[in-house]
């Protein structure tokens, strides 16, 4: 059940996320794709992302269960090929 929103900082910008807020819901909003409980794109495509909350990398398998709290600093890093 949604009870409102929580404000977190994502890549340096304040962002409202609906409660209960998880890393998975944030990644879904960021990518525009549905995310499975295992942290994979529902459509089977590769996400190419890593997520850290408070400077701790969150394993993809924990995205659905990692709750976000007001004021959390989240970094979403996209893999880029090249050199």
Automatic annotation (TrEMBL):
Classification via InterPro entries: Beta-grasp_dom_sf, Mopterin_synth/thiamin_S_b, Thi_S, ThiS/MoaD-like
Pfam families to which the protein is assigned, alphabetical: ThiS
Gene3D superfamilies given in the database record: 3.10.20.30
Source lineage: Bacteria, Bacillati, Actinomycetota, Actinomycetes, Micrococcales
PANTHER family reported in the protein's UniProt record: SULFUR CARRIER PROTEIN THIS
Record protein name field: Sulfur carrier protein
């Amino acid at each position: 059940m949604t009870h409102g929103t929580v404000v977190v900082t994502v890549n340096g910008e304040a962002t409202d996320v609906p409660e209960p807020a998880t890393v998975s819901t944030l990644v879904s909003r960021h990518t525009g794709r549905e995310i499975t409980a295992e942290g994979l794109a529902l459509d089977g495509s590769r996400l190419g992302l890593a997520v850290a909350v408070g400077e701790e990398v969150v394993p993809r398998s924990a995205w659905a269960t990692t709750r976000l709290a007001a004021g959390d600093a989240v970094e979403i890093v996209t893999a880029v090929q090249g050199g």
